[in-house]
């Protein structure tokens, strides 16, 4: 597996309590009473504190680890193309919790793990085709929690996102803190994350100096990129840039190359994961004919962030800091 960006380790100094340290135990109230949360705009009641949570994908799994909830987990599913998991602040969680599948979660995974909660998201495990949805799990007696970044927003085509992405992160931490009785831990994380982001934003370029940024996930015929409801949106804006696809009322979606060319980004951020690595993606972008006059390509301003940096996860604040340092250099060159 490829190595994660070494800078991700800077989180370790501020999140040591998420690296196997003891956090407050679930409160007696949380253990004996039902808890009602608002998830994707709907009230959902959980009759008890889950003890065998199954998660899908790296960002969702690390939300549990960041809250010190490894003991409440029965396993996780994710592909093995998401970087070197030995190099993250939550290595102890990965060592402790069972890796159930190197694909997306299935009903069989959940049943075999005797899951009493599935924490996943739309297109992060949950599939609209009905094979694996909160409704299908409910029929099996298994409750669900949906990642807020992935909530459907009622727009055409299954568009996702109902609030600013960092608000989605803070919402999920707050909800998980309430459900598992670790509200203080959740509040400390949120406060720390907000402080990290604010410190970067205070140094960010302003006005016309803010670089325009295009996120390239994948795709050669058409690029897969990020709209205003994906975590990348605020990672870019708080770092001092402008997402050139801000007008897309979706999280992750496909656009045309002609749109990218017209919007002429100063910088391209590559989302690093999958069978096509960052070096291959960069080579494609620099050689793709339609992009030859785009500022980012002409000036070879291409920056790499890991997949988990760009989806909702506790690594988002670190991603803001790293991208912020890069964009300040771009602004100085403009």
TrEMBL record:
<dbReference type="InterPro" id="IPR002491">
    <property type="entry name" value="ABC_transptr_periplasmic_BD"/>
</dbReference>
<dbReference type="InterPro" id="IPR050902">
    <property type="entry name" value="ABC_Transporter_SBP"/>
</dbReference>
<feature type="domain" description="Fe/B12 periplasmic-binding">
    <location>
        <begin position="52"/>
        <end position="334"/>
    </location>
</feature>
<keyword id="KW-0732">Signal</keyword>
<comment type="similarity">
    <text>Belongs to the bacterial solute-binding protein 8 family.</text>
</comment>
<protein>
    <submittedName>
        <fullName>ABC transporter substrate-binding protein</fullName>
    </submittedName>
</protein>
<dbReference type="Pfam" id="PF01497">
    <property type="entry name" value="Peripla_BP_2"/>
</dbReference>
<feature type="signal peptide">
    <location>
        <begin position="1"/>
        <end position="19"/>
    </location>
</feature>
């Amino acid at each position: 597996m490829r190595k994660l960006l070494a800078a991700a380790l800077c989180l370790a100094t501020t999140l040591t309590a998420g690296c196997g340290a003891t956090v407050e135990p679930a409160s007696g109230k949380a253990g004996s009473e039902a808890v009602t949360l608002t998830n994707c705009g709907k009230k959902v009641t959980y009759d008890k504190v889950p003890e065998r949570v199954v998660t899908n994908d790296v960002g969702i799994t690390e939300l549990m680890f960041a809250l010190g909830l490894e003991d409440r987990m029965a396993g996780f599913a994710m592909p093995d193309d998401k970087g070197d998991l030995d190099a993250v602040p939550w290595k102890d969680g990965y060592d402790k919790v069972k890796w159930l599948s190197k694909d997306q979660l299935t009903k069989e995974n959940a049943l075999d793990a005797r899951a009493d909660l599935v924490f996943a998201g739309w297109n992060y495990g949950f599939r609209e085709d009905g094979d694996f949805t909160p409704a299908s799990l409910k029929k099996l007696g298994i409750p669900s929690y949906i990642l807020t970044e992935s909530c459907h927003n009622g727009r055409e085509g299954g568009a996702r996102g109902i609030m600013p992405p960092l608000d989605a992160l803070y919402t999920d931490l707050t909800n998980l803190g309430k459900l598992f009785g670790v509200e203080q831990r959740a509040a400390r994380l949120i406060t720390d994350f907000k402080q990290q982001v604010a410190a970067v934003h205070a140094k960010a370029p302003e006005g016309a100096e803010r670089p325009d940024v295009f996120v390239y996930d994948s795709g050669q015929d058409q690029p897969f990129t990020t709209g205003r409801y994906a975590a990348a949106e605020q990672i870019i804006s708080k770092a001092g840039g402008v997402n050139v696809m801000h007008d897309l009322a979706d999280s992750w979606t496909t656009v045309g190359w002609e749109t990218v060319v017209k919007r002429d980004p100063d910088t391209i951020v590559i989302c690093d994961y999958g069978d096509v690595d960052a070096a291959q993606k960069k080579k494609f972008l620099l050689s793709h004919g339609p992009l030859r006059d785009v500022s980012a390509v002409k000036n070879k301003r291409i920056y790499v962030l890991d997949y988990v940096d760009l989806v909702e996860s506790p690594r988002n604040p670190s991603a803001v800091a790293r991208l912020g340092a890069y964009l300040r250099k771009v602004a100085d060159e403009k």
